[in-house]
Amino acid sequence: MRARKRWLSRNSGIWMLGTLLLFIVLSACANKVAAADGPLMGTMKSFLVEVDEDDEEVLTETDQVKPGQVIEYALNYGNVTDGNLTDVKIVGPIPAGTVYLAGTAVVRDEIVPNFSIDGGVIYKPEPVLYTVKQDDGTEVERLATPDMYTHVRWTIKNLLAQQKIILNYRVKVN
Fold first, then answer.
1. What SS3 state is found at 102?
2. Domain count, the chain
3. Which residue in 56, 68, 109, 150 is a FRET match for 139, CA 20 to 30 A apart?
4. For residue 117, what are the domain limits?
5. What backbone phi and psi angles, to 5 degrees, belong to 161?
6. Which one-letter DSSP state was computed for residue 172?
7. 5 — phi, psi (to 5°)?
8. Do residues 25 and 93 lie in contact, with contact meaning Cβ atoms separated by under 8 Å?
9. Cis omega (within 30 of 0) on the bond before 93?
10. Could you tell me how far CA 78 lies from the centroid of its own chain?
11. CB-based contacts of 82, cutoff 8 Å, min separation 6
12. pLDDT of residue 37
């Protein structure tokens, strides 16, 4: 019994440390701001998604999370110039310790999300396919699952002068 208590105590500490690290990552993401001297200004906020007694969703801004909770990220960006911007790319991270919830990245007009499974190097629309090289040298295409996603990115073909946009997506905390 003593060994079990010691194990639980050690693992509780690990769990708390992991939760603290996830909190730090989420806080850093939530406060991420675009360069102040560029044509695009932005913020990223995180909201806890809960359901009230009337079965309505309630979003509460948060910087603390617990396993099992759903978090919605809102990326608020705006063109701060008097000219139009073209091919604007807005990227949202999917923090370690979370899993993207399929179908939650906002789709608006021609603004469609693309996803990365390699840390933000390559982006593809859903369904995201990737290639695996077999031992015999042949290649097989596989379907990536949302738990493999590391980033979501939207490309805005034309962001008008002084135009603002909000893009959202959700993750679940492991």
1. coil
2. 1
3. 150
4. 2-173
5. -55, 130
6. E
7. -65, -40
8. no
9. no
10. 19
11. 161, 162
12. 62
- The residue written with tokens 């840390």 in the block is 119
Q: Is 159 in contact with 79 (CB distance < 8 Å)?
A: yes
Residue 150, exposed/middle/buried by CB under 10 A (0-12, 13-18, 19+)? middle
Q: Could you give the CA distance from residue 118 to residue 20 in angstroms, rounded to a whole number?
A: 25
The whole model's pTM is what? 0.78
Please give the chain's pLDDT, 174 residues, in tens.
Answer: 444 444 334 444 433 334 333 333 444 444 344 444 689 999 999 999 999 999 999 999 999 999 999 999 999 999 999 999 999 999 999 999 999 999 999 998 889 999 999 999 999 999 999 999 999 999 999 999 999 999 999 999 999 999 999 999 999 999
Amino acid at 106: V
Q: Which two tokens stand for residue 42?
A: 């932005």
Report the alpha-carbon distance of residue 170 to residue 90 in Å, rounded. Answer: 16
Structure-token pair, residue 98: 């979370």
